[in-house]
Amino acid sequence: MPKRTLTPILDPSGIVYEAVESNVLSDVTATIYEVGKSDPWNAAAYPDYVELVFSQYMSTAETLVVPAGYTCEWVNKKKVNAQSSTEYSKVLHLKKSAAVGDTVTVTLSGAKNYVGTALAAYSSGALTVAVEPVELRLNYETQIAVLVGEEKDPRVTVQVLDRNGRPIPGRTVKAAIEDAAYATVTTVQGTTGEDGVAVFSVKGLLPGWTKATSAVEGSSLTKTLPVRVTIASNQAAKPVASISGNVYTESTNRITVPRGSALTLTCATKGAVICYTTNDTCPCQALDRQLYTGPITVNEDVYFRIAAYKEGMEYSERLNLKVSVSDASSGGGGDYTPGYSATVEQPENGSVSISPKSASKGDIVTVTVTPDKGYTQETLTVTDSSGNELKLTEKNGKYTFTMPASKVTVKATFMEDNSMLNFFVDVPADAYYYDAVLWAAKNGISSGTTDTTFSPNASCTRAQIVTFLYRSVK
């Protein structure tokens, strides 16, 4: 039997499922368009054109009848395949200039959908010409990262801008998650304010990937970003601030420094970008935030809100620094008192940070230990200048010690995290699915194929999938 060459084509009707008794589908939504009963159109008027957005793909080959003085153009066209000249589109522009605030009415006839069914003649009714939204700007650039069971759901801000980059207030923005099994989205503020911003929150449900789409209601403007849901901490390290010889790592700091002092910001996460605001807004959401590019000269009282961000990771915990300036060269209080230094010998497979890096005798110093993925803390020691080991107190994953009357040295070591060996021996720590398998094992979702193996490369049966889903929602 000769081989047939199959050429895939665009199927505007969506996914076609085989209708057999063994493949029964539930919770499936189908949209049926009945000619003459409903009009699958949406219209909006802008200074250069009226935009018609269809809810189904339309043929672009038909001759359309439009009002006198208008020309028409299909936009965002898609070919059936590379070999075909047939194109479909959902967006039609009827072009004619008008001023913002004018009222226009358009009609259309001769339109046919992708299967050749003629749609009823259309009249838009009175449309008020509005400023055209041309860009959606999010506080996440290429990927939204969330954590399963996060105490506070990450906020996603969506700013609507016109062609000159100015914010558009009063527009309704909607957000949707492609696969609600992994994450959900909730509207916090659906209508843009004077800053053109709408706000949503995203909640992680299961580890994996999905997509989030933001759309301006009444227009074809949308933006889709991948959503990564993880169970292990995937957060950039909190920035560290250095100014006037002191280091600050706590969440909130109030300091006084000489006028003209230079503020330096660093982050332990390689490749992370540090951003900050000085207008009492959160840098995680404010689209007018500033990017840190080098030392900042402080000449007046200012309140810095600082965070770090890296693509594919969550925003860091915020560092707040309320700075008051003084014209005196000294006398600013404890900020100018010489102290003993604390030096960290940075280990392999993790990092260690201390706050402050210089302290007086009797001060409390905090040590934060952060293992790399696949590793766990093995040892942590703090010694004084004579080599004597200091007492460490652990609380909520951080350690503290009392500064002696000498400099100190902090050392830590890390070892491979063998937590998975409590469950399965065939899931290496560097596997991309390591976190998901560990979560499933710890939460009773999967018990593996044997007492000691998970068989990550084995096929998954339908019964197993149903069992996993059932256990995950119990």
Shape: flat
Structural class comes to mainly beta
**Radius of gyration in whole Å, from Cα?**
30 Å
Mean pLDDT score: 81
Number of domains: 4
* Unreliably modeled segments: 14-19, 33-38, 329-338
The biggest sheet, with number of strands, parallel, antiparallel or mixed sense and barrel status, is: 5 strands, antiparallel
Separate helix tally: 2
Total count of strands: 34
How far is it from the N-terminal to the C-terminal residue, by CA?
52 Å
- Share of helical residues: under 10%
**Proportion of residues in extended strands:** 35-45%
How would you describe what is shown here?
By secondary structure, the protein is mainly beta. The chain has four domains: 1-130, no CATH class; 135-230, Immunoglobulin-like; 237-337, Immunoglobulin-like (Sandwich), CATH 2.60.40; 419-473, no CATH class. It has two helices and 34 strands. Strands 1, 2, 3, 4 and 5 form a five-stranded antiparallel sheet that branches. The protein has a five-stranded mixed sheet with strand order 20-26-25-22-23, with no helix packed on it. A hairpin with a 5-residue loop joins strand 16 and strand 17. It is flat, with a radius of gyration of 30 Å. The two termini are 52 Å apart.
